[in-house]
Amino acid sequence: MALLFFLALLFGASYAQLTETFYDQTCPRLPNIVRQEVKRAIETDIRAGAKLIRFHFHDCFVQGCDGSVLLEDAPGIDSELNGLGNLGIQGLEIVDAIKAAVESECPGVVSCADVLALAAKQSVDVQGGPSWRVLFGRRDSRTANRTGADELPSPFETLEPLKQKFEALGLDSTDLVAPSGAHTFGRSRCMFFSGRFSNFNGTGQPDPALDPAYRQELERACTDGETRVNFDPTTPDTFDKNYYTNLQANRGLLTSDQVLFSTPGADTIEIVNRLGSREGTFFRQFRVSMIKMGNIRPLTPNQGEIRRNCRGVNELGGEAGHDVM
């Protein structure tokens, strides 16, 4: 309760309108429906959970948690999916399946933004990670922000630009390091880290923060830029604290991962060490930071809409989703 009170103060009235019980009367089986669809997706695609949590991150970082990341190109909409930060993003069909299952039982009630928030939580929980209290009541945007998607945190960035992007959204260094732990599962294409193998930043040498033995493993695995490699070389499909022990061993896959530990004098070093010390410590902080991130500038009643199809806005004048409060 103390945590929720603090976050309510931090995010003000818009946060206070979100509640864990928002769908208790209108869609009481929502958590079970989403969990079932997430489990089904993971059974057929082990990367499904990582895809879903990435969608939630990328949604919230561009004009708030409003489902805008899911909108495809349409008249008046330049899709965020075309933005540099979303190149290669996958999993729209998984979101479609989850939304269809929700619509089947609760038509026009649950927003796509709330579906993303809950699917991210269930993805982590199903693969061995922590659970947390998802607050609901977000509405879906009728607009997208391609420019914002171009400015999403990059896998090539050093620490200061990353911190600045998080700070602009009210997120501190701990909120940078803890959610980055989601890279304990999932895959990355070689094009996003192969520049670390040689002539790193024009030095003519490999990235000194990349363990040489690990670099050789990666070079052998990367037959081309499209090849996908596990973020976590130890337990690639389990949500655990090994992301941080990998950073401590200079085995962070992306530049944006390793700089959390290898930037001299950075405040993030202590945070990596703390979250890597005990799994329970990581899980507790991950919960806090995910609640905080999931409530960045949500659209609440009298704003946005409840999209029937997450890929496009509702037709004006046609049957649309309705308010539930």
UniProtKB/TrEMBL annotation:
InterPro entries: Haem_peroxidase, Haem_peroxidase_sf, Peroxidase_pln, Secretory_peroxidase. Coiled coil: none annotated. Ca(2+) 1 binds at D59, V62, G64, D66, S68, E80. Its EC number is 1.11.1.7. The record marks R54 as: Transition state stabilizer. One of its GO terms (molecular function) is lactoperoxidase activity. Binds 2 calcium ions per subunit. Binds 1 heme b (iron(II)-protoporphyrin IX) group per subunit. Disulfide bonds join C27-C106, C60-C65, C112-C310, C190-C222. This is Peroxidase.
